[in-house]
Design brief:
Radius of gyration: 24 Å
Helix content: 40-55%
Number of helices: 11
Largest sheet: 5 strands, parallel
Order of helices and strands: EHEHEHEHEHEHEHEEHEHHH
CATH architecture of the largest domain: 2-Layer Sandwich
Strand order of the largest sheet: 3-2-4-1-5
Shape: elongated
CATH topology of the largest domain: Methyltransferase, Cobalt-precorrin-4 Transmethylase, Domain 2
Number of strands: 10
Number of domains: 3
Strand content: 15-25%
Structural class: alpha/beta
Length: 284
Amino acid sequence: MPENYGKLYVVATPIGNLADISYRAVEILQQVDLIAAEDTRHVALLLQQYGIVNKVTAFHQHNEERAAPVLIAQLQSGLSIALVSDAGTPLLSDPGMPIVKLAKESGIAVEPIPGACAVIAALSASGLPTSRFCFEGFLPRTSSARKTFFSERLDWEMTWVFYESCHRILATLQDMAEILPLDRQMVIAREMTKLHETIVKDSVGNMLRRVIEDENMRRGEFVVIVEGAATLKQDLSVSAEEMRVLKILLSECSIKTAVGMAVEITGGRKKALYQAALALQETE
């Protein structure tokens, strides 16, 4: 890095409770030459809380491609800049990728200032396995795309996590209940660190009922965590009727098609039918 270049700090800010900020983050926000914020009005409340007076410029999803080169030029001139989002760690489903990418390509130092992250906070209190997990950001907006998303992850062995909004949480759970086993465990963490924080662990079927019956469970911002297939004690046995249907379909279709159709016809478990299909092919 050229000696005259400034440094880009990626600063995590609270996701609800304003006390959830590190001493180091406060120091950086005080010391930098400029704060690039997703919402200047939103960050003003945080700065006011900690008595920070500094220059702030807007950097959000609608201007980041245009604004990133301007900020890079300022960094190259020797200024230091702190990047913050509305809440949590920048770039995790928040703006920031264009400027971090350009900074790296330009030889500008990028220093993370760690702190609050809704995904990590929710996982830590979920009671589901955390040794391996996959963060999926926000789900697709259409029902068909969400169902495809759930189908692709039906047999994933790791825990998977995504964000959802209050406007789509019910529809998302309804789609999930059509694809995943209703006894699959999941967690909804809503309004993390805020006054009405709620973390509920239950089966997919019961969770859907909770959200339908409790209006409060449809309010706020959501982190949804789903148990991986490997943690389930699944019954992989196949009934005589399921086997009969599967044999007929395998005589005409590929394994993938036959299993999919058998699931629709019999209501059997996809994984059990798939294992049965493989066994049938091996004996032929």
